[in-house]
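[Q] Does anyone have a clean structure-token version of this?
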Amino acid sequence: MPRATRALILVEGHRGIGLRYVQAAQSLGYHPITLSADPARYDYLAAESVETIRVDTDNLDALIHECSRLRATYDIAGITGFAGDDESIYATVGKLCLHFDLPGPNPASIEQCCDKFTQRQLLAEAGIPIPAYRLAANAAEVEISAAEIGLPVILKPVIGSGSIGVRLCSTVDELAEHTRYLLGEKYPWLSSPK
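[A] Here you go.
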């Protein structure tokens, strides 16, 4: 019986480096397959005729279903993904790898690292020195926390990546302005603020 084609599953794409991942997979003899909620976001998929499946990448069960379907045709060598506005995709990739008994990141560790407050708690429990921090859910708590820590402070959302929403506030006015920004309609929350 002939051996099935070895495939590398890519969860979502990346406008900057996605094509390089596809080319690297191909150069290593893998057939890249991209699972994406909106494949049209990534021009290289159509331009390079990359096999692409539209699926809700926020739905783990839907991803498991698609990967299971692909396993009937391909030998899945691995699953990886690209972070967008948040890094939760890495936890999803870890869960998929765990489900299909493939090497991959530990999803629980990834989830702990993606939540900055939880990450700081774990570091403190491990005895690793960290700067003073507070968790605030509203403007009054932000103001009280900044007064306890002392200016300047770095004000940032609990969830997110790429320093989106992060600002050094050196004055009370800067703190108030950035707090309004984070708690207002202008900031695209990936989850509700804590």
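[Q] Thanks! Anything notable?
[A] Residues 60-71 form the longest helix (12 residues).
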